[in-house]
Specification:
Layout: E1 11-14, H1 21-29, E2 35-40, H2 43-53, E3 60-64, H3 70-73, E4 82-86, H4 91-94, H5 121-127, H6 130-141, H7 146-159, H8 165-180, H9 198-209, H10 211-225, E5 231-236, H11 239-253, E6 273-275, H12 285-290, E7 298-304
Parallel strand pairs: 1-2, 1-4, 2-3, 4-5
Antiparallel strand pairs: 5-7, 6-7
Length: 305
């Protein structure tokens, strides 16, 4: 909240409404006349949030939409003073076995944020070629054993197609045991307490929901919508997201566009923004203790000039 400095009467867009935690705080901070528009790709979560926020009346609006469509869904909303996006998954979605996001619970191998879209994680692991799978795991999951895991997936699906999360977990776990020569029957955790399937599930979730392309689409739209002096805040949870946000923010705040080899600036470029956060803000220990899933969160904020 400090990074965005909400004031009474501000118009706010929450691009990832979730259960409405951010929205409630912004609606309270912008009372009595401030308004908030909340977007979410997940219809079930959106319904829950609307029930929680109905007491704010017409100060609160919601739209079932991806934030990649921000410009079109916000065209009838007042020009925003603040736009926020928390790129983490809602606990309600993550903890629901039927949604297939978690490697800790058995459920359909789904991972779709928007249940109306077509392709699931099962579709990818059952149809993608071995090289394509390895590239996906390496690029989206930063998985160091991507080729080994991709090969194991392809070998297993020849025997039986993947339909459940735990089927995939077992294959990834077995691949790591073979690499590490770890005995069966003992829980296998990697460096810093990382479950062997963590990176594989991250990669598939990003691919299923086209998350990086969605974020790349959001950033320029959000910046263009802001009023002068408006603030854009993004909370990311892995290095791929944070890198995109950092690069976009740096580009908007850049003071010189001259070639690197040029000794003296001649472009006289006027920055479009200034970074509120010079470095990303990580959650405090107290917040991590209350919500361990927040530990990898990084907040970056930008002010439009």
């Amino acid at each position: 909240m400090q990074a965005t400095s909400p004031q009474a009467g501000d118009a706010v867009i929450d691009c990832t409404l979730g259960l409405g935690g951010y929205a409630r705080r912004f609606l309270d901070a912008t009372a009595p006349a401030g308004r908030l528009l909340g977007l979410d790709r997940d219809a079930e979560t959106l319904q829950l949030a609307c029930a929680q926020l109905q007491s704010y009346g017409n100060r609160f609006q919601s739209v079932h939409a991806s934030f990649a469509a921000l410009a079109s869904v916000a065209k009838d909303f007042p020009p925003p003073n603040i736009i926020v996006a928390d790129l983490g998954l809602s606990s309600v979605v993550l903890d629901a076995p039927v949604r297939g996001f978690s490697f800790l619970h058995d459920g359909p191998l789904d991972m779709r944020m928007d249940q109306s879209q077509g392709r699931t994680a099962a579709d990818i692991v059952n149809t993608a070629g071995e090289r394509e799978l390895a590239t996906l795991l390496k690029d989206y999951g930063e998985e160091p054993k991507a080729r080994t895991i991709a090969k194991a997936i392809v070998l297993q699906r020849k025997l039986r197609p993947f339909t459940r999360t735990q089927e995939l977990v077992e294959v990834v776990d077995a691949a790591y045991r073979a690499i590490l020569q770890a005995p069966a029957g003992r829980k296998l955790w990697l460096h810093r307490g990382l479950h062997p399937a963590t990176r594989t599930f991250q990669a598939l979730r990003i691919a299923v929901n086209d998350e990086l392309a969605e974020l790349q689409a959001l950033l320029p739209q959000a910046f263009d919508l802001l009023v002068p002096g408006g603030r854009l805040a993004i909370v990311s949870f892995h290095s791929l997201e944070d890198r995109l946000v950092k690069q976009f923010f740096q580009q908007q705040a850049k003071r010189c566009a001259c070639p690197p080899e040029q000794m003296q600036c001649t472009c006289d470029r006027i920055p479009a923004a200034e970074c509120i956060t010079r470095k990303p803000i990580s959650p405090a220990l107290k917040e991590i203790q209350q919500n361990p899933r927040a530990r990898s969160g990084k907040l970056r904020a930008l002010k439009k000039i």
